[in-house]
């Protein structure tokens, strides 16, 4: 595996592969790699000639009170995992190369970025789309891979690619879960033992709510009440930021889950913010 830190070298290397007719699969990450990331990498390896993974903790997508400075990082451990997966290139740029002094541009996907997580993390998705647009321009992938756990992020990136005519297929892969259903996330590392156990309530809540919807109880009011009750039954759930049914394309809350709906949750377990979701059809 080649480790490249300089954006224009990745750019030239990608151009070389594309000129030779090779497809490029790209998995952008912020490191602290877990099975969820590895599943994206495996899919990229299956579907492309070359797989490039980036590791960059993007300061632009963290709010002032958020965890940028303590975001878990282990570049050596991550590189080892990537070698085992036989990734072709690890792109691990330095911040000053991606955001040199005087960097002013932002990429923003209007309304979609204000819904759900966007309402609680001002500017977060603007930071995500800015870095992802930059990475796409540097890596020039044929396909890029994202996890369904970050459903809103995937919807926003698909919209960005469409609106900006970027010739990239966005592939959304299933959420990978722990034995008790907790969605894998680098942020799970912040949970202490008790909180880690308590966090399984999120998946239980999604499964039970989707069963309720499938049994025909589909109204927004009943769904919200049911989800709230389930989540608050766990004393370590400190705050529910949202828990309801949404349109999977517009991310607007819907009155009833009468067609395919997105069940989505954001809660704080102890001090850690966790999100999860599930698609459900009545
Ligand atoms: O999902 C993530 O890890 C990040 O939001 C991403 C896509 C790598 C952009 O920094």
Nearest-integer average pLDDT: 98
Radius of gyration: 19 Å
Main β-sheet: number of strands, strand sense, barrel status?
Answer: 6 strands, parallel
How is the largest sheet built, in terms of strand order? 1-4-3-2-5-6
| Helix proportion range | 25-40%
Query: Which structural class should the secondary elements be placed in?
Result: alpha/beta
Number of strands: 9
Q: State the order of secondary-structure elements, H for helix, E for strand.
A: EHEHEHEHHHEHEHHHEEE
Number of domains: 2
Separation, N- and C-terminal Cα atoms:
46 Å
The CATH fourth-level homologous superfamily of the largest domain: HUPs
What are its keywords?
single chain; about 280 residues; Pantoate--beta-alanine Ligase, Chain: A,domain 2; 9 strands; about 40% helix; about 20% strand; binds pantoate
Give an overview of the whole structure.
A hairpin with a 2-residue loop joins β8 and β9. The protein folds into 2 domains: 172 residues, 3-Layer(aba) Sandwich (Rossmann fold), CATH 3.40.50.620; 95 residues, 2-Layer Sandwich (Pantoate--beta-alanine Ligase, Chain: A,domain 2), CATH 3.30.1300. The mean pLDDT is 98. It is α/β, with parallel strands linked by helices and 282 residues long. The strands form 2 sheets. The chain has a 6-stranded parallel sheet with strand order 1-4-3-2-5-6, with helices on both faces. A 3-stranded antiparallel sheet has the order 7-8-9. The structure holds pantoate.
